[in-house]
From TrEMBL:
<protein>
    <recommendedName>
        <fullName>Probable periplasmic serine endoprotease DegP-like</fullName>
        <ecNumber>3.4.21.107</ecNumber>
    </recommendedName>
</protein>
<keyword id="KW-0732">Signal</keyword>
<dbReference type="InterPro" id="IPR001478">
    <property type="entry name" value="PDZ"/>
</dbReference>
<dbReference type="Pfam" id="PF13180">
    <property type="entry name" value="PDZ_2"/>
</dbReference>
<feature type="domain" description="PDZ">
    <location>
        <begin position="275"/>
        <end position="366"/>
    </location>
</feature>
<dbReference type="InterPro" id="IPR001940">
    <property type="entry name" value="Peptidase_S1C"/>
</dbReference>
<dbReference type="InterPro" id="IPR009003">
    <property type="entry name" value="Peptidase_S1_PA"/>
</dbReference>
<comment type="similarity">
    <text>Belongs to the peptidase S1C family.</text>
</comment>
<dbReference type="Pfam" id="PF00595">
    <property type="entry name" value="PDZ"/>
</dbReference>
<feature type="region of interest" description="Disordered">
    <location>
        <begin position="88"/>
        <end position="111"/>
    </location>
</feature>
<keyword id="KW-0378">Hydrolase</keyword>
<keyword id="KW-0346">Stress response</keyword>
<keyword id="KW-0720">Serine protease</keyword>
<dbReference type="GO" id="GO:0008233">
    <property type="term" value="F:peptidase activity"/>
</dbReference>
<feature type="domain" description="PDZ">
    <location>
        <begin position="387"/>
        <end position="486"/>
    </location>
</feature>
<keyword id="KW-0677">Repeat</keyword>
<keyword id="KW-0574">Periplasm</keyword>
Amino acid sequence: MTAATIAPTRLRIGLAALAVSAFSAFGTPALARGPDGIADVAEKVIDAVVNISTSQTVEAKGGGSSTMPQLPPGSPFEEFFDDFFKNRRGPGGSKGGERGDNPPRKTNSLGSGFIIDTTGVVVTNNHVIADADEINVILNDGTKIRADLVGVDKKTDLAVLKFKPPKPLVAVKFGDSDKLRLGDWVIAIGNPFSLGGTVTAGIVSAKNRDISSGPYDSYIQTDASINRGNSGGPLFNLDGDVIGVNTLIISPSGGSIGIGFAVPSKTVVAVVDQLRQFGELRRGWLGVRIQSVTDEIAESLNIKPARGALVAGVDDKGPAKPAGIEPGDVVVKFDGKDVKDPKDLSRVVADTAVGKEVDVVIIRKGQEETKKVTLGRLQDPDKVQAAVKTDEPAPEKPVTQKALGLDLAALSKDLRTRYKIKDSVKGVVVTNVDANSDAAEKRLSAGDVIVEVAQEAVSSGADIQKRVDQLKKDGKKSVLLLVSNADGELRFVALSVQ
């Protein structure tokens, strides 16, 4: 080692020693140690945290007389036994997995949950108990009790269980997740890697986090260690109140890297109440399809600043239709709550009681209006089977006109057949899109139908060009198109006219 590299090392050692002496003189700051109440909270609530054990019968994929032990996901021995049984030769010299005569077998998994009622009511994640043949609750002292499923909500990944208490129980109560602040200390307790009641602590890293895992994403993000097996466990504040249900992590390795997510208690309470009362979720339904209000769309609709949820379509049988809500309206307030984006509207509608009459504030042509809507009940849509494509001879090329980087043609019988466009769809069909145009960037494609331009109906390419020319004269930077797909589903698209 040269002197050039030694000198900086000595300097760092000297600075470290100085830092240590400084801390010795003045004492370690409280924030470096974390809050003092963690042990008290853990002692108070840990008996309310349970392990969830499930078993499921699955078809065996291979043969061999030996069956691999069923280990909890993430167990330290999982990889060892997996390799051992895959490579072990069964009777007669055949390798396990080659005989194909294994009977169905049971698999086991473990997760977490917590008791919210001393009568034996437990909250956990839906994915912890999904498809289970048998569910057992394991108390903190090791007592194992068979549990029944009360109900699940797949959209928020929550489930409620019920078991008969063998002795008096400890229950925890929900806190108000809306009162959390960034940097607040939180405590996670659960069953990571099958290790039983494990306590970890961290802070609230973010609120209202949308990770596109479901329609009602609004997660609490925390750096408290959450691992496989923690799913369904509680996230506590320093008062010992449950402010979230630990649900998932982001990790390339499968272990905690400090990015965990919990369903906020505000959501959990509403879901759990309905599952206990009805055994299912009864969400409010407005009967509209919505999309984001981009800066371009906001400019086209004279909305400043860009905000709200743009109504792209209205269900003919939905509550919004008789209330007078129309495509092109922008919802900015629902039942007294501000709507900043489509996710806000989805959440607040879902949380509102079925049958309640609410005020919906919209912006239409730059002016605010209030509509009264009586909410319906959201039903899970049936799965739509994809249309089977058939090879048909292409008809003669239609007469087209170019505008906005699009080749446009009047709808004809041949074009409806070619693009499988429903008879109910009216407008001007797109037959080609310039790959370098704004239209291509906004994902318009051949077969789309332009229904309106700047909120006026069109029936020909000439109609569209006339509207675009007028907007240019008026100094507009963009034009708002109402576009339909072949099935009649509408969306708004703003394209540059420059």
